[in-house]
Amino acid sequence: MKLSVIIVNYNVICELEHCLVSVQKALQTIDSEVFVIDNNSSDNSCEIVRQKFPWVTLIANNENVGFAKANNQAIRKANGEYILLLNPDTIVEQDSFTKMLDFMDTHSNAGGLGVKMLDGDGKFLPESKRGIPTPFTAFCKLFGLASLFPNSDTFNHYYLGSIPDDTTAEIEILAGACMLIRKSVLDAIGLLDERYFLYGEDIDISYRILQAGYKNYYFPETHITHFKGRSTRKTKRRSLIAFYQSMKIFSDQYFGTDKPSPRAWFIHGGIYLRAFFAVLGYYIRKTFTKS
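Below the sequence we write its predicted structure tokens.
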């Protein structure tokens, strides 16, 4: 089998339906399978998937086990040469999978591949291509230097600002919204790190792909539409907290900030400070929206 598509769903059945329709069209000429893992949705997602998409292998969890763990449930059952992790709030083009697989087949050093992502208005999403969030890179992102110097690889390495949006290139970090990984690479490096509940698992697995000697690529010759944040809109505060917790996990594991030191205190302080202002901003916007 060539491709296993894995989609984790949580209370976004409307988006999931559109996603599955686009996936089915894109898979017409590909030997493939599709998994939907539902994390205990309350919007009848499982019933609708069973009724409308009987060709999908549905895994219905009795609790929300998180994004990484849910993906791993399907990866363990997958038979594809390639594994595609895809968000339910995405629409793929009819040629997306064919072009992505052709690229991987002709680049044996490629461990992972990401594509150009556009939002619902057709605007480019900068997280389509990212760099490793080293302490300096994360600092520039957290405190706005990346936004001030968007084309700088020094100050905007987080979004690889020096790489044009329409240029195929080696990158460091793939986006979990649409991430194609060679199954043999996953067999070698292991599955997603389940300590990451909602964010950060894509950064971790991308980094491990690089550590194993493979390349990650940004491939803009096709694109997907990502209706960003639909899955987390109803739990925005918890999503913000999860994002910054994930940054701390990654920093502790790979940059030695799990041990007390002035460097660790500085980095953790920056993460917690930025998280505080992000959550504060959420409550301020929520208050003014209600009024």
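Residues 234-290 form one domain.
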